[in-house]
Amino acid sequence: MTKKRNIGMLILMGILMVLSLFTISASAEEGGMKFQPGMVIDGSRLTLGDSAFSPNYGIAPHGDYLAEGGCSITRADKDIATIDGYTIAYRVCDELYLGLYVDQMQEDGTWQTVWSREKRGNDAYSLSYSINIFVEKGYYYRCRAGHIARFGTTLESNVSITDGIYFGEGHDE
Description:
Elements: H1 2-26, E1 40-41, E2 44-47, E3 51-53, E4 66-77, E5 80-105, E6 111-134, E7 139-151, E8 154-161, E9 164-167
Parallel strand pairs: 2-9
Antiparallel strand pairs: 1-2, 3-4, 4-5, 5-6, 5-7, 7-8, 7-9
């Protein structure tokens, strides 16, 4: 019994050691970037592309009132990101809400919100917002959006999230 347990523990330790080697190689720095294009971190694929849109250009359809919503982040310049978002209802609602958030990839592999903006509309069926913001070079950034439609006592909501795009070397033109 103890021999089987010891063999099982040795196998488990071996598997953990092999897995840790993959983790170390995946986070090794190559070319100055700790996180490589193609990696997926908290639902966002890291890319060197110039823009990223929420999957399928947002949520559609969602409910009886909330029809669609989406967000995007685009590299406008070496340190300027264009942030766009929208919320659309099937009909005029008492209130529509769009919350936009820009997250920066941190060294520990987490996303931290570095910018946010909220927009509300009363007696509306669509809402949108677009802005250029400055970002610090050398990081991946993504956009998240919260979408809410309220009609009477009915509240429908959803979120959209883009992939992460890199602002840094190779994008200095």
